[in-house]
Amino acid sequence: MPPPAFAQETQTLEEVQVSAFRRLRDTGVQQVTLDTTVLHRNVALSMSEILTQHSTLFVKTYGRATESTAEFRGTSPSHTQVLWNGMKINSPMLGTVDFSNIPAYFVDKANLLYGASSLTLTGGGLGGAVDMSTLPQFNQGCLLQYIQGVGSFKTYDQYLRFTYGGERWSSSTRAVYSTSANDFKYTNYDKIGRPRERNKSGYFDDVHVMQDLYYNSPQKGRFALMAWYSYSLRGLPFLSVDYKNDTDFRNEHLQNTLRAVSSWDKTFERWSLSVKGGYAYGDMDYDYSTTRSGTQTNITKSQTHSQQGYVQANADWMPRDNWLLTANASACYNHVNSKDRSPFHIGNNYNLGRMEYTMSISAKWRPYKGLSFSTILREECYKRNFVPVIPALFAEYALASRPLKKSGTFRSLFKASVARNYRYPSMDDLYYKPGGNPALRPEKGVTYDGGIECRVQQKAYSVKANLSAFDSYITDWILWTPNAKGYWQPSNLKKVHSYGMELTLTSEVRIKRDWRFSVMGNYAYTPSVNKSDRQTVNDASYGKQLVYVPRHTANFLGTLSWKTWTLQYQWVFYSERFTTTSNEVSYITGRLKPYYMNNVSLEKTFQWRKVHASLKGVVNNILGLEYVTVLSRPMAGRNVEFFLEIRPQWKKSVSPLP
Amino acid sequence: MLLAALVLSAACSDSESGMEPEEFGELGRGVIILCEGNFNAGNSTLSYYNPETREVENGVFRRANGGARLGDTGQSVSIHDGVAYVAMENSGVIWALDTATFKVKGKLEAGDTEHMINPRYIHFVSDGKAYVTDLYSPYITVFNPKTMQYVGSIPTRQEASGGYASTEEMHRWGNRVFVNCWSYSNKILVVDITKDEVTDEIVLDSWQPKSMVMDRRGKLWVVTDGGYSTGEDAFGDNVPHLYRIDAETLEVEQDQTLDVDEANVQLVVNPDSTWLYLINNDIYRMSITAPHVPVRPFIEAERGADGRRHYLYGIGVNPRNGELYVADAVDYRQSGVVYRYTAEGVLVDKFRVGITPNGFAFQ
Prior knowledge:
The structure holds 2 protein chains of 2 kinds. By secondary structure, chain A is mainly beta. Chain A is 5% helix and 58% strand. In chain A, the strands form 6 sheets. Chain A has a 22-stranded antiparallel β-barrel. Chain A has a 5-stranded mixed sheet with strand order 1-6-7-4-5. Chain B has helices spanning 2-11, 60-64, and strands spanning 31-35, 45-50, 55-58, 74-80, 83-88, 93-98, 104-109, 119-126, 129-134, 139-144, 149-155, 170-173, 176-181, 187-192, 197-203, 209-214, 219-224, 227-228, 235-236, 241-246, 252-257, 265-269, 275-280, 282-287, 312-317, 324-328, 335-341, 347-355, 357-362. Chain B is globular, with a radius of gyration of 21 Å. The relative contact order of chain B is 0.12.
């Protein structure tokens, strides 16, 4: 919850301004920064909803607490690299991240790095990278925050946070508990007579606890420790065309995850050092069983245990004010034990470990004021396989920077980049039995980016716009296809050409003394076209848009504030998505119609001497649209949730929690 | 802007508009083609092909039934007494359709029975009794195809905990119905139709018996896919076998290995059950008296520029004239293609149907 909303949004733009115009480190980088104003808008939101509503990424999901993957620029979910406090958290098995399992309230800052820009952090992001981090709260005193949410379909969200921020120490403890029967009613158009049915087996029970601790010493540098544990039990909803009784079956995921990162940073006059270490543990059980025949029969009982150890060192050196040299090295060990204990599966899937190494060097140079260049060379290795050197080149030029009337400013900036990138296969790709293909090659990508960023700042309003275009080619795209024996196999099948443009616009207006208005909008045009050789003469997929990738995505958030009242309207749009590789529309199931979503919220804050509080009501899908985002997966109609937030005020509290 | 977005959203709701049931008129003696669709996508469809006019109607179930969908993962279609029965595996339902209109006459849901989970194939023992095999249930479900009422279940006596519970195709000889257990198994079960119970079983040397036919002499031909072998912990050796088993003595009389590759293997017989047609990458024709499968294929699968064969995913023989219908799944994610050949293997027609065509039924 973001009261007072406007003040914090102003902070956001300042941060973007600094990173866009001043930092040599970010030369030529195409990125969007989401801060707590966006991330902590609603405790019921996961990063899945945040990315859907505030970015041009396409998030494929079929409801709250269901697997949600995010794609940049028409690539695949495994082409999105995801970092949490510097540690890569993509599943070593699948290469993807389930964003529905990341509560947005656990993230204080998220950078979305598009295309080549992801190489400033990591390799393998053929689409881009999402970099999430927590932030310390130095000098904030003691802060306590509790939010209780109650919503439709027996949904309850609880959030508790305690923070202490002193001059040197900062500690934050957060916990989220979300549970729901999620048994919304819908009209089942896929069955004869269009019966009203309930969403079967869609329940969820998620618990997250996070602790972060910082110690800041002018002499010794900054030490940090972040740990995050999550437990998630989720039913997998039945298809709209399923005629079985859900009471006869258990179809659920149980997941336990622990992630921990410690770091040390020290900045000197001309150089800085950073060392990180991380550990992640995950176990995931998928259980599909029935008691139909009197005894329990496990149809699928897969169990996966994974462990990850990670170390990284980074050094920055500024020999002159216009030069920045960086060296980075990291090593990561992944171990996965994947098995299926159902009677219908014999043998383990695999039980293996894999070392992964990365080294990179980069140089940033500003020859003239307003003009800067950056280059990165990255080398990656998995097991004993070296991928070719990954190069990237960035350029940035300040087109204009001039004052306006009434103390205003206008700035515009041109950015461009070109990069080659590789993503090596995930462990499932290589080793999963049956189907894994040890002969897979890394996927290759070449991407070109260019864009203009403009900003107008006046006393009464500000506008920031970013327009970028990209052109990207991916070859040896790894694709899992079913084989004649009934299981799936990956191969380096595809060539894909994706291109298009992205537009981001944010604006804030102070209408009168107590009235403020802000808008944030995103639009992307993303043709992502299959250019693979035809498999056979019957293959009609050449030149067609990839399955489930919309050509157009757009979203809009409008916020109107009056004194202690805040009204928000959220609109999200995805254009039609094809469900076949040949983009056939002759089938009713061949495409999903355009998707529009409208959400509205109203919030009132109270500021008493001893306590600050707020009441918030959210109406999702306010028009009650009946829709699907994935075939045969109905979505909830109009639904509501109410939130009560309480923040006791102590003497040392300097400002409310974001 | 807000108003515009709201209006646009309201105008473009994703809710399905009403779809009026479509009348197909006089359909003639055509071919019903089941298209499996993609697992968990619910996009299985039925197509209808008129061999006389060479016209194809796709998505006939949905069109005839007011927009309702056939379901998820259609496994088999068979016609009995003017009614088409479609087993929808992952939907857990069997549809009974009028073959003249494709309108639903009845259905048997998993919940109507005691043990049915994922129905695979249907065998009509009599006008009032049919068996249903199942991918997961250790029971064969018995129902009355006239009333679509559940009758009972036959325990397969395959311990689920031992990994054997799947049952697949069925063929009859006398009072015996032979049932192959495909998934992680190497057995053929023998069901006595007078007792509705499993009375015997045949254990094969090769894993995963995939498809069977009965020839006119009472010889059961069984093709296995050999399981899979992708490294350690392999299940089977990936080598398909073709067996000939005597339906009276239950003895294996002939056993030969087939091409390995990634072949889908499937068997059908010609109308008088004297020739076998086998999909094993290409299509082979073999006399029931021949000692082995011919070296040269009867019909070669088309190949792409890189030499990759088409994915032949299903085969059917028209009992009226012996014409062959062969399904190509292409990439499994686009509309499949059906080839129609004469009994002598001459291409007559080629047409697009739904996703992953796998089965044929002839009116």
